[in-house]
Structures are given as structure tokens and as C-alpha cells.
Amino acid sequence: MFDIGFSEMLVIAIVALVVIGPERLPKVARTAGHLLGRLQRYVSDVKSDINREMQLEELKKLQSEIRESARNVEQSLTTEMQAARQALDQTAATATSSHPAPTAREYPTVAEAAATGNAAPASPPVAAADASQPTRTL
Predict the structure, then answer these.
(1) How confident is the model over 45-75, as pLDDT tens digits?
(2) pLDDT per residue over 19-53, tens digit each?
(3) Is this model's pTM higher than 0.85 or not?
(4) Distance CA 126, CA 122 (A)
């Protein structure tokens, strides 16, 4: 901090001895040492407070960046969900308009099956791909 050499410190000690006197010099040196220690602790406390404030500011900036990133991700997901929902609605509308609702029944009811002599109503035909699949038993 200060550029004081050994010779300058020796001159300061001799002047202090002459000015203060040999009886009071140890007490003054002790008091000066305590004050210097307090000053050093105060300076280190101020430095640590400044460092904490700087870290707090960095954390606040990082937090705001993360929040902004989360908002951007949320907006993009919302946009993608809306686009997918619109595409699904459009596909559903196209499918219902191209395939009219069935008006006639394909399979007889239980009462019709009983009237014709069948014990159970006819089951829907099994597709060829399904019939070729082997059944699994555990």
C-alpha cells in the first residue's frame, strides 16, 4: 500500500521515541496496532460487501435471462400447440366432410340374429392382416 522502506520506518520510530517518550511509547504503539487492525477489518468487510453486491447483481441478471428464456420457450410451445391443434381440427373437418355418416347398419342386432336363427349376432369380418397374425398366449 505505502512504499515505506526499513530506513524510513527506523526514522519514524526514533522520532516517535523522542516525541512521545519511552514511558508512553508501548501504550501508543499498542493502541495504533489495535486501530490499524480495526481499519483492516473494516476494509475487508467493505470489500466483502461489495463482492456480495456484485455477485447479487450477477445472479439477478442471470435470473432475468433465465426467466426471459423460459417465457420464449413457453411462447414457442404455445404457438406450436395452437398450430398442431389447428392442423388436427382441419384434418378432422376434412375427414368428416369427405366421409358421410353411415345411414344403414352393417351388422344385424341381437333381435334380428335371433329371428334368423343365429344364436349371436354376426361379428365384423376379420381383416386378412389380422387373421394372419399369430395369437400370443402367456
Answers:
(1) 999 999 999 999 999 999 999 999 999 999 9
(2) 988 899 899 989 999 999 999 999 999 999 999 99
(3) no
(4) 12
Q: Which one, of 11, 13, 6, lies nearest residue 29 by Cα?
A: 13
- Report the C-alpha gap between 106 and 108 in whole angstroms: 7
Q: Are 122 and 128 in contact (CB under 8 A)?
A: no
Check residue 16 and give its pLDDT.
Answer: 87
* Identity of the residue numbered 21: G
How far apart, in Å, do the first and last CA atoms of the chain sit?
85
64 Cα distance to chain centroid: 11
**Which three cell numbers mark 46?**
467493505
DSSP code per residue over the chain: -----HHHHHHHHHHHHHHH-TTTHHHHHHHHHHHHHHHHHHHHHHHHHHHHHHHHHHHHHHHHHHHHHHHHHHHHHHHHHHHHHHHHHHHHHHHHHHSPPP-S-SS--HHHHHHHT-SSPPPPPPPHHHHHSPPP--
